[in-house]
Amino acid sequence: MKKIKRAYKFRITPTQEQLAMLLQWVGNTRFVYNLLLRKNMDQYKEDGTFILAHQMTTSLPLLKEEYSFLKLSPSQSLQFVARCLDKALKDSFGKNKGFPRFKSKRKQRDSLTIFQAFSVEKQAIKVPKLGHISLKKHRAIYVSLIGVDMGIKTFVACSDGTVVANPRILTTYQEQLAFQQKLLSKKKIGSRNPEKQKKKVRKIYNKITNTRKDFQHKVSHDMITKYDGVMLEDLHISGMIKNKKLAKHIADASWHEFVRMLEYKAQWQDKVYITIGRFEPTSKTCSACGWVDAELCLSDRIFECQICSLVLDRDLNAALNIRNKGLEKLPRDARDVKLVELVSLQTAKSVAGCESGIKEC
Questions:
Q1: 257-265 contacts: CB < 8 A, separation 24 or more?
Q2: Which of 41, 102, 152, 183 is least surrounded by Cβ atoms within 10 Å, i.e. has the fewest?
Q3: pLDDT tens across 240-251, in order?
């Protein structure tokens, strides 16, 4: 069955201060687009080549130092501009769509794409650096696709910022289980007491198994129902469990069973299910610019990029990388999936940016 993608528009009612900042962000994306386009045109005249998306993205921190007003924008919004320009340049040759043009601030409509730390509530949206903005929500909103990173400290971390804590079910019942096993070891062989005690031990094991399955069913059901698809790493669980220090915790998490649940539930509901290679350095790679921290250790819980200055929780950074890699495996006609987009932002009241003292671009 072919999946149908739908996009919905919602009216937001920002305050004057929020509107001024949104207009500033829109101006910043237009400014960066035009600046990078000019740099590409100059380089093409010199040697017949263009600046790649990765190079444009890694140049953004230097641009922020040169143009300080760019620091007001969410970093990933500016990075998305670089990727859009890269696609436009490639399409102008590969698909004969015409060479990209400079963006004009005289346009009556403009758009802004926001990825990071974005959340939708009952009648408001929470935007980084802006707080809550009133929203006229006339239908349910669904995030299209998420990347999922599984771990020990957190059971799953999703690319939209959702984190599910590891319940550590075996640890919860460990003392009770150890006590009953100790009693079993003291029962006299040949009597009926050992069999009675074995039933008590089995009852605890069944409790652990059922509690774990109940937890995983609820999490997997919620994820498959809430999202249009999931993307995961193809973990080498049998190899990881050989680590004596982590084997107990890995077995308790039961990743294999959880992945199995996600896969068949995705098939039931005709949702996207994608796995990426197990050797991808998702935890060590910056989800914003692609820089790899080869020295990142398992004990390092925060990822800090030395190129674009991104600071992010290690698991969330990995989930974003899994999502990005998963998107690359989608069919070409489905690769334009975005997590969150604010579309058709009215710019008619651009004077609000001047009244608040914010530099207009």
A1: 257/213, 257/216, 258/150, 258/216, 258/219, 258/220, 259/150, 259/232, 259/235, 261/216, 261/217, 261/220, 262/148, 262/220, 262/223, 262/224, 262/230, 262/232, 265/220, 265/221, 265/224
A2: 102
A3: 777 777 788 888
